[in-house]
């Protein structure tokens, strides 16, 4: 990598980090390109070299968030041989993680669904694809566990996770995290053949 490529990569990274923080603090529509480049200490021309538009920047942030999510997901279940235990491990990890800070209860994809509700928007499509991939991965684990109606169970578990994420934003540390694991276990038990 030459010096120019290194500077470009550093500028791109700074834009992603800064924009992510600003979008978390203020929302997508409330933050303009001028604010992003000023806070990042980067020129508007440099930003547009990396991202043709603010929407493309948001899309890149969603892609990165998705990569981080899947790293966390696979790390959470790594080394757990029983698929049912993998499912429970996911819920246990979410229960531990969510009440800790406002950032941990913030779902970028839920925020996108609110601010970009139109299905044809690239951010909305990215969010929908990410959420559908979670359902498919949960369904795969449910199938491996030999649970009945794995598609239905995966959707139910997914809705439960999403609901917990939202409720954690309201209740923080008082969010019923123990209920999360217990209810997930009960739901999984109800799908045993």
Please, could you describe this protein's structure?
The protein contains 10 helices and no strands. It is mainly alpha-helical and about 190 residues long. α1 (about 5-25) crosses α4, α8 (about 120-145) packs across α9 and α9 (about 150-170) packs antiparallel against α10. The radius of gyration is 19 Å and the shape is elongated. This is AcrR family transcriptional regulator. InterPro entries: Homeodomain-like_sf (IPR009057), HTH_TetR (IPR001647), Tet_transcr_reg_TetR-rel_C_sf (IPR036271). Pfam families: TetR_N.
Short description:
With 193 residues, the chain is mostly helical.
Features:
10 helices, Tetracycline Repressor, domain 2, mainly alpha, 193 residues, elongated, Arc Repressor Mutant, subunit A, 77% helix
CATH class of the largest domain: Mainly Alpha
CATH architecture label of the largest domain: Orthogonal Bundle
Helix tally equals: 10
The CATH superfamily of the largest domain appears as: Tetracycline Repressor, domain 2
Low-confidence stretches: 1-7
What is the radius of gyration?
A: 19 Å
Strand content: under 5%
Residue-averaged pLDDT: 89
The backbone outline, from C-alpha atoms, is elongated
Structural class: mainly alpha
CATH topology of the largest domain: Tetracycline Repressor, domain 2
Strand segment tally: 0
Helix content: over 70%
Q: Give, in order, the helices and strands.
A: HHHHHHHHHH
Question: How does the major sheet shape up?
Answer: none
Span between termini: 55 Å
Pfam families: TetR_N (PF00440)
DNA-binding region: 32-51
Organism: Paenibacillus eucommiae
Keywords: DNA-binding, Transcription, Transcription regulation
């Amino acid at each position: 990598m030459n010096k120019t490529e290194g500077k470009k990569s550093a500028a791109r990274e700074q834009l992603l980090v800064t924009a992510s923080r600003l979008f978390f603090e203020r929302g997508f529509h409330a933050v303009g390109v001028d604010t992003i480049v000023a806070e990042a200490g980067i020129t508007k021309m440099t930003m547009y070299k990396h991202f043709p538009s603010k929407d493309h920047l948001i899309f890149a942030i969603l892609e990165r968030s998705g990569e981080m999510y899947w790293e966390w997901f696979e790390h959470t279940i790594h080394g757990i041989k029983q698929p049912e235990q993998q499912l429970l491990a996911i819920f246990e990890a979410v229960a531990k993680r969510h009440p800790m800070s406002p950032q941990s209860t913030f779902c970028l994809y839920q925020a996108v669904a609110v601010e970009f509700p139109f299905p044809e928007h690239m951010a909305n499509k990215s969010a929908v694809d990410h959420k559908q991939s979670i359902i498919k991965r949960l369904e795969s684990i449910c199938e491996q566990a030999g649970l009945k109606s794995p598609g239905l169970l995966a959707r139910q578990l997914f809705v439960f996770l999403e609901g917990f994420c939202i409720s954690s934003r309201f209740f923080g540390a008082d969010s019923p995290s123990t209920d999360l694991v217990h209810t997930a276990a009960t739901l999984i038990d109800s799908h045993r053949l």
